[in-house]
Every structure is written in structure tokens, then in C-alpha cells.
Specification:
Blueprint (H helix, E strand, L loop, with lengths): L2 H9 L11 E6 L1 H4 L2 H11 L3 E6 L12 E6 L7 H17 L2 E6 L4 H9 L4 E5 L5 E2 L13 E5 L9 E2 L13 E4 L18 E3 L7 E3 L10 E3 L8 E3 L9 E3 L20 E3 L18 E3 L10 H5 L9 H5 L7 E3 L21 E3 L8 E4 L8 E3 L8 E4 L6 E3 L17 E3 L20
Organism: Camelina sativa
Pfam family, one: LRR_3
Protein name: Probable WRKY transcription factor 16
């Protein structure tokens, strides 16, 4: 290769005068410094380029202000994990100031460095905001020791920079954490098994279906697929008994959710914005936070959870009474909710109940025995006309925009009241000396 063509390869053919008045860092290990690199440095200096040469353990080059770094992979460093870490630090320059990084392979096969460098790697954290490159479909095939994989973009406005022209054939089956923002495929690789996975985080993914290929999911505790707008199927078997959190917020095309009755450790379920979901077939009794804001919930098959032979109904709260550990219920904009039934049992730990903008809700039963309930939000319930009795220890009450005509006695614990735009309200019963804030 001629000197001029080599220099064009370094800077890019798009630059008409790439080398004039430039400064270049050459990063290498000691043995290459006095052989190949010395010749490369001499050639670049003859072209008027300022050269700084650094050993792979010397990271002061990051402050030299060069426009280009040439990273030399040779026999003595190409398979070193320390070298890989240093190379990652060079790549940070691209993210910070547009610095260009060009690898040069001296006496080694570029395809072999992947196997040597990464075979025993246990964790990878890759910020794609400063990277643009094509990924080999077998990139993870040899990474048998990988336990933690995090692919993310620190600049959320940037488009995905990793290209997979031939797809992705595999992921390590021993992974404990799989965190991949903007995952670009409709499915997980065919041979990938979730049996060792503890946490699955894939926000804003292109996943269309999530299916577990094994029933052995004893390790899995957390699933976050929020804003995966192509997701239409979420199929996690009931054997996933250790799962604690499921976050599917913003999965607008998801139409159904599996029964999780036997998932005794499930504490948080977030289906906010899953506007296509019409039913939740079964939940465990110890759930603490349930978010159904913006869903199309119509009915709950009570018989699945309670073993009852009663027919399905549109009385969602009657189903919820089976969950005595529930602390937060969010039903905002569950527009098809019609009725809240009496619940003299359960709800012992319920602190906040949000039924905001449930347009068809007409009445609320006696809630006096909900002794832990402190916040009740009924704002925007346009057809709400009747409330039997408020919770005895309630502190905040939101009634704005309701059709309520008469209110029961307020509890002495009330600290905040918002009754704006309650045009039909005729009377209010007060039993305390100090009026609440409003």
C-alpha cells in the first residue's frame, strides 16, 4: 500500500486535504513502538503531521487535543483485556469531541481478536452514542463467560448506531443481566435461554413477541419492556415464581397479559398506557403496586383468582379486594370502568387510590374502613354523582370536574381538598374546626 493511500485510509476518503496541519496520537504497546510504529511515525512526520506516541498503559494522550488516534493491535496486546479497556477509553473521545479513532492490525488477524479478547469477559457496558459500526451476527457466540450485558445510549436523541446487516444469531445463555435499549429485532435469538437471567431490561425495543423457551425461570426477578410499541405478545409462564416487577408501560399494541396468580413474589405491575389491554386474568395476593392508567380494562374474570363461579363483571374493585397487600392502585383514564363495588375485606394497606378521568364511574361505596387510604383522586370523573362515605384517615381529596351533588362528612384528618368545577355541588358537611387547604 502506498503512503498516500494509507493516509487516506486513516482519515477517510471524503477529506480532500486530510493531513495538513494535523495532530495524531499513536497508541501501541512497547515492542511495536520501536518497530512498526517508528516507521509509521516517520512517514506521517514527513507529511507535516505532528505525532505523539503512547504506550497502552499511558492514558495522558486523552488531553493532547489530537484530531485522530491510531490504535495499533499487535501480537502482544490484541488478546489482552487491559488493552480492550484502554481502547474503550479512547473511544470516549469520539463521544466527547468528535475525535476519530482508527484501529490498525499489525501481525494479527482482526477476526481473531474477538475470540481472544472477549472469550473470558464477564461484563460489557457499551455506550452506542459515540459508535457507528456493523456487528457480526456471531459477535457473542464465543463469550461463554459473559454475565452482564448493557447496551445503552447516553444521548437519547441519537438514533441507534449499531447495525446488524446479517442479524444476530446468539446471546450468551449464562447472562444474569440483559440491558439493551432500542433492541432492534422482533425476537430474541432462537437459542437464547432465560434460565439464568435475573433482570431483563429492554426499553424502547422493537420486540414483537417475548416468549420464554424454558419453564425453568427461577432466577428471573425483573422485566422492563416499557415503550416497546411493537410488542403484541408477552408470554411468561406461571413457573416464573420469583418475579417481583413487570413494567410494560407504553406497550400500546399489547392486547393481553398472562395470569400471574402463582407468582407469589410479584409486587409491582405497570401496564400504564397499554391501551389495547382489556382484561387482567389473574394476580397474586401480595401485589403492592398496580398501574392500569390508560388501559381499556372492561372486565375481570373473578373465578380465576378467587375460585368463584360468579360470572364476569365490570366491577374491577370487587376483584381487587383479594389483594390485602395492595398499597397503590392507579386506574386513571380506565374509561370503561363503570362501578366500584363494596369492599369490606382486603385493602388493608391501600394508601393511594387514583380513579382520575374514569368518565363512566357513577358511584363509590362506603370506604370508611379503608383505614390506610390517605389519597383519593376522583378528578375528571364526569358522571360521578354519589359517594357513600370517605376513608376515616384520608388526607387528600380531589373532586375537580365531577358531577357530585352532595358529600358525606369529611374526616378530621383531611388536609387538602380540590373541588374546582363541581358546579352541581350543593352542600358540604364539616366536622372539624380548621378548614382544609384547597
Amino acid at each position: 500500500m502506498s503512503r498516500s493511500s494509507f493516509l487516506v485510509d486513516l482519515y477517510g476518503a471524503e477529506s480532500k486535504n486530510p493531513i495538513l496541519n494535523s495532530s495524531v496520537n499513536i497508541i501501541c504497546e512497547e515492542t511495536a513502538r520501536y518497530s512498526f510504529v517508528s516507521h509509521l511515525s516517520a512517514a506521517l512526520r514527513r507529511e507535516g503531521i505532528s505525532i505523539s506516541v503512547f504506550a497502552d498503559t499511558d492514558l495522558d494522550y486523552r488531553n493532547q487535543g489530537a484530531t485522530l488516534s491510531v490504535v495499533v493491535f499487535s501480537e502482544s496486546n490484541a488478546f489482552s483485556l487491559t488493552w480492550v479497556d484502554n481502547f474503550a477509553k479512547v473511544l470516549e473521545l469520539r463521544r466527547n469531541n468528535g475525535h476519530k479513532v482508527t484501529p490498525v492490525f499489525y501481525g494479527v488477524d482482526p477476526s481473531g481478536t474477538n475470540q481472544g479478547c472477549w472469550r473470558h469477559r464477564r461484563d460489557i457496558s457499551l455506550d452506542t452514542s459515540s459508535l457507528i459500526f456493523d456487528v457480526n451476527p456471531d459477535a457473542f457466540k464465543k463469550m461463554v463467560s459473559l454475565r452482564f450485558l448493557k447496551v445503552y445510549n447516553s444521548y437519547s436523541e441519537n438514533a441507534p448506531r449499531l447495525n446488524f446487516p446479517k442479524g444476530l444469531n446468539s446471546l450468551p445463555c449464562e447472562l444474569r443481566l440483559l440491558h439493551w435499549e432500542n433492541y432492534p429485532f422482533e425476537y430474541l435469538p432462537q437459542g437464547f435461554d432465560l434460565h439464568e437471567l435475573v433482570e431483563l431490561n429492554m426499553p424502547y425495543s422493537q420486540l414483537k413477541k417475548l416468549r420464554a423457551r424454558t419453564k425453568n425461570l427461577e432466577m428471573l426477578k425483573r422485566i422492563r419492556l416499557c415503550h416497546s410499541q411493537q410488542l403484541v405478545e408477552f408470554d411468561i409462564p406461571f413457573e416464573a415464581q420469583s418475579i417481583e416487577l413487570i413494567d410494560l408501560q407504553g406497550c400500546t399494541r399489547l392486547e393481553s397479559f398472562p395470569a400471574m396468580t402463582k407468582s407469589q413474589h410479584l409486587r409491582v405491575l405497570n401496564l400504564t398506557g397499554c391501551r389495547s389491554i382489556k382484561t387482567v386474568p389473574g394476580l397474586p395476593p401480595h401485589i403492592e403496586e398496580l398501574n392500569l392508567q390508560g388501559t381499556s380494562i372492561e372486565e375481570i374474570p373473578i373465578s380465576i383468582v378467587a375460585g368463584s363461579s360468579r360470572p364476569n363483571c365490570k366491577e374491577l374493585m370487587n376483584h381487587m379486594k383479594n389483594f390485602p397487600g395492595l398499597e397503590h392502585v392507579d386506574l386513571e383514564k380506565a374509561k370503561k370502568l363503570i362501578k366500584v363495588s363494596p369492599y369490606d375485606q382486603g385493602f388493608r394497606k391501600l394508601v393511594r387510590l387514583n380513579i382520575k378521568d374514569c368518565f363512566h364511574l357513577r358511584s363509590l361505596p362506603d370506604m370508611y374502613n379503608l383505614e390506610s387510604l390517605q389519597v383519593l383522586d376522583l378528578s375528571g370523573c364526569l358522571h360521578l354523582e354519589e359517594i357513600k362515605c370517605f376513608p376515616r384517615n384520608m388526607k387528600e381529596l380531589y373532586l375537580a370536574g365531577t358531577s357530585i351533588r352532595e358529600l358525606p362528612y369529611f374526616p378530621e384528618s383531611l388536609e387538602f381538598l380540590n373541588a374546582h368545577d363541581c358546579y352541581l355541588l350543593k352542600s358540604v358537611w364539616l366536622l372539624f374546626e380548621q378548614l382544609p387547604r384547597h
